[in-house]
Specification:
This protein is mainly alpha-helical and about 325 residues long. It has two domains: about 120 residues, Orthogonal Bundle (Peroxidase, domain 1), CATH 1.10.520; about 140 residues, Orthogonal Bundle (Peroxidase, domain 2). The protein is about 45% helix and about 0% strand. The protein has 14 helices and two strands. It has a two-stranded antiparallel ribbon with strand order 1-2. Helix 2 crosses helix 5, helix 8 packs across helix 13 and helix 11 crosses helix 13. The radius of gyration is 21 Å and the shape is globular. The chain starts with a helix and ends in a 21-residue tail after the last helix. The N terminus is likely disordered. Bound molecules: protoporphyrin IX containing FE (HEM). Protoporphyrin IX containing FE binds next to helix 3, helix 8 and strand 1.
Length: about 325
Amino acid sequence: MTQSMSFLIIAAMLAFAPLCLCGKTSGGYLYPQFYDRTCPKAKEIVYSIVAKAVAKEARMAASLIRLHFHDCFVKGCDASLLLDSIGAIISEKMSNPNRNSARGFEVIDEIKSALEKECPHTVSCADILALAARDSTVLSGGPSWEVPLGRRDSRGASLSGSNNNIPAPNNTFQTILTKFKLQGLDIVDLVALSGSHTIGKSRCTSFRQRLYNQSGNGQPDFTLNQAYANQLRTRCPRSGGDQNLFVLDFVTPTKFDNSYFKNLLASKGLLNSDQVLVTKSAVSLQLVKQYAQNNQLFFEQFPKSMLKMANISPLTGSKGEIRKNCRTVNS
Ligand code: HEM
């Protein structure tokens, strides 16, 4: 083969390779321009509805970011979380991490129906979740990034996957890290993504045991600042008040910034899973210190880790389907 022939072949291969920020996934690629021809207004429509919802209630940004996380950790980013219980499907909304906790489903419904009007049967619910998480971050003052698209929606849900794969607030540091590693995420991703707790709220029931020495050894939780603990006890009693809400970042509760990491260094992380990032691993402690010191560094890493999470086992090509309604599989 002549040199010019091989040059032509390589040039042709490059020209037809999709522009892609991400790795190859089973059977296809995700790339930001996926809907540019089939639904050019898709991104604007998602943004405008998320913006309206966040303007009405700042917490909605946090709730939407969390939906994407809880979706991706169960069978990949395939919108399995959005399915309601019907027929053989048992909804992931019933799982321990989601019951009485996951929220924002009505906003996703509103986005989906606007998109179905604009370009029917085109934009997946899984892509809506990925875009809404990015937009929520930006609208709260956080960093932006381009979202690779082209995910398709699952035809099933996994209640056991939801119960087992999503870390619980009382899991040990090692268990949490293992759950991240099972998804292809590492300790850097764990610390950066935990930085999402710079916004949003938690219920009393998710951290009560830290306040009442329920660790079993009768010792106070020395990893929790005692003045802060006293303050929390006033609305999170030993029994009752399970659903009372507390901001995850008491300094700037609705602003996406690095104060979450500063709080951890002052022993004022709300969840045990937050505080263990500084008490159980020298590597994660170092990362927390870096992000606490340098907001820019956090803002650089967060999008990278979100992109990794958003690329967990997506359904592409002819796998799955584009749901017409995010709550039900197509008939
Ligand atoms: C590292 C392990 C993690 C654990 C154990 C954990 C646990 C929790 C818990 C217990 C809550 C409060 C839920 C409630 O009481 O109703 C919460 C809230 C939240 N989590 Fe996590 N989380 C983790 C990682 C993440 C990650 C990776 C993200 C995003 C990428 C995230 C985003 C959020 C957000 C934004 C909220 C506030 C939601 C709202 O206000 O509606 N979390 N998390």
